[in-house]
Amino acid sequence: MRKANKARTNQRANVIKALSHPSRVLIAESLLEGERCVQDLTQIVGADISTVSKHLTVMKAVGLVEIEKRGLNAFYRLSCPCLGDFFSCVDKIGKAQLRTLAEATG
């Protein structure tokens, strides 16, 4: 594998790993609807602000989210709104698996 391909592959893997926690997927889904402050995300995720902040740090480190500070509040938004397309693709895979399972047991 060429060096450039390896770097791209590693970056892709890092983004996918950053989405490998249900709370981070929930955060990303929420941000598809528009920017949110940490307080809003804590209510959506159902976790304390420290936990949500750690999830956001992971997502920011790989470039999934951007932050904008306004006064005392920090607002997060997706840096790539096309993430919704990825989620749609994942949903198709899930539906196909369910069909296969239903056919095998039916």
Notes on the structure:
By secondary structure, the chain is α+β, with helices and mostly antiparallel strands. The protein has one domain: Arc Repressor Mutant, subunit A. 67% of the residues lie in helices and 13% in strands. It is built from five helices and three strands. The chain has helices at 3-18, 22-32, 38-45, 49-61, 83-105; strands spanning 36-37, 65-70, 73-78. A three-stranded antiparallel sheet has the order 1-3-2. A hairpin with a 2-residue loop joins strand 2 and strand 3 (73-78). Helix 3 packs across helix 4 (49-61). It starts with a helix and ends with a helix. The mean pLDDT is 92.
Which features characterize this protein?
three-stranded antiparallel sheet; 106 residues; Arc Repressor Mutant, subunit A; 3 strands; globular; 13% strand; 5 helices; alpha+beta
Q: Shape from CA axes?
A: globular
Q: How is the quaternary structure best described?
A: single chain
What is the CATH level 1 assignment?
Answer: Mainly Alpha
Name the CATH architecture. Orthogonal Bundle
Structurally, the number of domains stands at 1
Using DSSP, what is the number of strands?
3
Radius of gyration: 17 Å
> Strand order across the biggest sheet?
1-3-2
Q: Provide the structure class.
A: alpha+beta
Chain-averaged pLDDT: 92
Low-pLDDT runs: none
